[in-house]
Amino acid sequence: MKVRTRFAPSPTGFIHLGNIRSALYPWAFARSQGGTFILRIEDTDLERSSQAAVDVILEGMRWLGLDPDEGPFFQMQRMDRYREVIAQMREQGLVYPCYMSVAELDALRERQMAAKEKPRYDGTWRPEPGKTLPVPPEGVQPVLRFRNPVGGSVVWEDKVKGRIEISNDELDDLVIARPDGTPTYNFCVVVDDIDMRITHVIRGDDHVNNTPRQINIFRALGQEPPVYAHLPTVLNEQGEKMSKRNGAKAVTQYRDEGYLADGVVNYLARLGWSHGDDEIFSREQFLAWFDLDHLGKSAAQFDEAKLRWVNAQHMKATADDALALLVRPLLEKRGIAPDERLPAICGLFKDRCDTTLVLADWAQRFYVDVEPNADEAAKHVTDGVRPAIGMLAKMLEGCPWTKEDIAEAVKETLRATGLKMPQLAMPVRVLVMGTAQTPSLDAVLALSLRQKVLDRLRRA
């Protein structure tokens, strides 16, 4: 059996990290098993669905590299297929028209709750042998309800939650088509999963209550349901369910804030799945290791500080040229035209950066005039060190512009003046880079333009 998984978001709001994890795991499982990953947009909520939300889903998945093998498919474009299946179910007696009004349903629920019973449809319009149905009211379009099995249980082995058993007596007859004939969510999902030959459904545990209803529809249509894995909720840093209302950010905002796609994928993968104690891993390692047997059973809590740390590790491991490709457009947005030095600049500073935005801030100092930090300048650029700075400037005027030759010029200045390295290096860094906290002085100067270095040292 070839594995076929799907991600089926509703475009009713922007997609955040809690949502996209439900794309990451089915994508990873399909890739790890040599299977197929399908994207399906469940856009039947016409009032709340928007093209902008669809665009963010597609853009976020593209950025993270979660490319589908098939799709996107849109449920609104499949209405003829749903109606065809509903017609078959009517012919087979699997559904029936129900004329109970919303007011009657509300009154029924109130009576049931007053009697401390579970509120549910009572089967008034369900045909049964020997039962006399009420006379259909004139001018009322009925809903269609699915004839849920009576007695017995729905049982499935959930890959996260283990064995789940729900009595059919707990389930009422589900509405599968509204009065205007529009099919409902739980019905469309089943038809889609059958038509798309889905073998594994990996989704959030807010769908657990839908699963027994969907399984019964699968079986009524003569199909075996897929394997289910219901993922625990992702909580925000306050311990609430992650949502836009609770301050969650769109996935694409992390891209705009300078996170690497591989860093976010690594962090998200660990937010509900583990491979021993491994914290940092490549995308290739993740796909080699991923399975459904090590999915977490408890809710995972988002931690932005941890995400930044994971991203920093990926920054260090990323090739200089690859980082330069990401930093270049950030500098260009600031009106800076980077040159061939950029990859080496990225390589020098990437170990002290946790996002590409921070790396761009460092790189910018090589291309624009910087103003020395006033406090650091007052502390390090003193009258006692100015003669040594002047001597170094003179030596740098004519020496070959390599890291090794610059290092020798610095050492010679130290020998001539009797200063220690920090006494000279700190003020030179402040003058050239605006701050005393940089990588080694010779490496920084070698990547700077000679004339700019000389001009800045002469400021002293």
From TrEMBL:
<dbReference type="InterPro" id="IPR049940">
    <property type="entry name" value="GluQ/Sye"/>
</dbReference>
<keyword id="KW-0648">Protein biosynthesis</keyword>
<keyword id="KW-0963">Cytoplasm</keyword>
<protein>
    <recommendedName>
        <fullName>Glutamate--tRNA ligase</fullName>
        <ecNumber>6.1.1.17</ecNumber>
    </recommendedName>
</protein>
<feature type="domain" description="Glutamyl/glutaminyl-tRNA synthetase class Ib catalytic">
    <location>
        <begin position="2"/>
        <end position="309"/>
    </location>
</feature>
<keyword id="KW-0030">Aminoacyl-tRNA synthetase</keyword>
<dbReference type="Pfam" id="PF00749">
    <property type="entry name" value="tRNA-synt_1c"/>
</dbReference>
<comment type="function">
    <text>Catalyzes the attachment of glutamate to tRNA(Glu) in a two-step reaction: glutamate is first activated by ATP to form Glu-AMP and then transferred to the acceptor end of tRNA(Glu).</text>
</comment>
<dbReference type="InterPro" id="IPR020058">
    <property type="entry name" value="Glu/Gln-tRNA-synth_Ib_cat-dom"/>
</dbReference>
<keyword id="KW-0067">ATP-binding</keyword>
<keyword id="KW-0436">Ligase</keyword>
<dbReference type="InterPro" id="IPR008925">
    <property type="entry name" value="aa_tRNA-synth_I_cd-bd_sf"/>
</dbReference>
<keyword id="KW-0547">Nucleotide-binding</keyword>
<dbReference type="InterPro" id="IPR033910">
    <property type="entry name" value="GluRS_core"/>
</dbReference>
<comment type="similarity">
    <text>Belongs to the class-I aminoacyl-tRNA synthetase family. Glutamate--tRNA ligase type 1 subfamily.</text>
</comment>
<dbReference type="InterPro" id="IPR004527">
    <property type="entry name" value="Glu-tRNA-ligase_bac/mito"/>
</dbReference>
<feature type="binding site">
    <location>
        <position position="244"/>
    </location>
    <ligand>
        <name>ATP</name>
    </ligand>
</feature>
<comment type="subunit">
    <text>Monomer.</text>
</comment>
<dbReference type="InterPro" id="IPR001412">
    <property type="entry name" value="aa-tRNA-synth_I_CS"/>
</dbReference>
<feature type="compositionally biased region" description="Basic and acidic residues">
    <location>
        <begin position="118"/>
        <end position="129"/>
    </location>
</feature>
<dbReference type="Pfam" id="PF19269">
    <property type="entry name" value="Anticodon_2"/>
</dbReference>
<feature type="domain" description="Aminoacyl-tRNA synthetase class I anticodon-binding">
    <location>
        <begin position="325"/>
        <end position="460"/>
    </location>
</feature>
<feature type="short sequence motif" description="'HIGH' region">
    <location>
        <begin position="9"/>
        <end position="19"/>
    </location>
</feature>
<feature type="region of interest" description="Disordered">
    <location>
        <begin position="118"/>
        <end position="139"/>
    </location>
</feature>
<feature type="short sequence motif" description="'KMSKS' region">
    <location>
        <begin position="241"/>
        <end position="245"/>
    </location>
</feature>
<dbReference type="InterPro" id="IPR000924">
    <property type="entry name" value="Glu/Gln-tRNA-synth"/>
</dbReference>
<dbReference type="InterPro" id="IPR020751">
    <property type="entry name" value="aa-tRNA-synth_I_codon-bd_sub2"/>
</dbReference>
<dbReference type="GO" id="GO:0004818">
    <property type="term" value="F:glutamate-tRNA ligase activity"/>
</dbReference>
<dbReference type="InterPro" id="IPR045462">
    <property type="entry name" value="aa-tRNA-synth_I_cd-bd"/>
</dbReference>
<dbReference type="InterPro" id="IPR014729">
    <property type="entry name" value="Rossmann-like_a/b/a_fold"/>
</dbReference>
